[in-house]
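Side project, low priority. Logging it here so it doesn't get lost.
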Amino acid sequence: MTRASDNPRPPEAARAAGTPAAAGRKGKRTVLVVDDEKDLVDLITYNLTRNGYAVLGAFGGNEALEIAARQTPDLIVLDLMLPGIDGTEVARRLKADSRTAGIPIVMLTAKGEETDVVVGLTLGADDYVTKPFSMKILLARLSAVLRRGETAAGAVDATILKAGPLSIDTSKPEVTVHDEPVKLTLTEFKLLAALVAARGRVLTRDQLMDRAMGTDVFVTDRAIDVHITAIRKKLGAANWLVHTVRGVGYRLRESPEDGE
């Protein structure tokens, strides 16, 4: 559990959140922290700053949307319980806006029930952390999400992956079906790319987690299933590409007639 005594902060930490100067330091990753608890925003800001991040802060949904559109941070830490527009609606609007759709979201919430987590992941969140939380764990999860984004954007093994009407350009990253763009979150992109790269081989949920998210990230089987459901929905009529192998995991199908 995070306690203020565990993470002492100087008075200026409270002023760092939400200031353009904090976000404009060259070469630093920028994180937008959204929570209506000012003390918690200050605490996270202080610890992120100590670890080399630039930080923006917002205390409500509308403010978060405005800052995200104007500053385009590298990552957003988003509480679900916000005044006015709640966190789930903020996430939905972020993913619907072309300016912010590609920004990864880590949900920070006291709602630990599976249904709340599933809703967040369905809306496009890349990860979640429940309150009370360890600051070290939060930092590790944020770092892991950003690394996944770097891998997708940097494309160490940049190439074009194809399967039926599906094309994946790992150097951008970009996904098209019948030459029409498909908007995926970074986590969804990595999962789909892993399936296509496996070329029909069945991948267990654990293998998908490792290939798409890294071995240092804990993700439940249910979370993987939610991401796969979201991918299928976005693939539209080509949703047959991702096939469920009952009791095992998932695999790519090259054609609708491709059996198990």
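Brief comment: The two ends are 46 Å apart (CA to CA).
Revisit when time allows.
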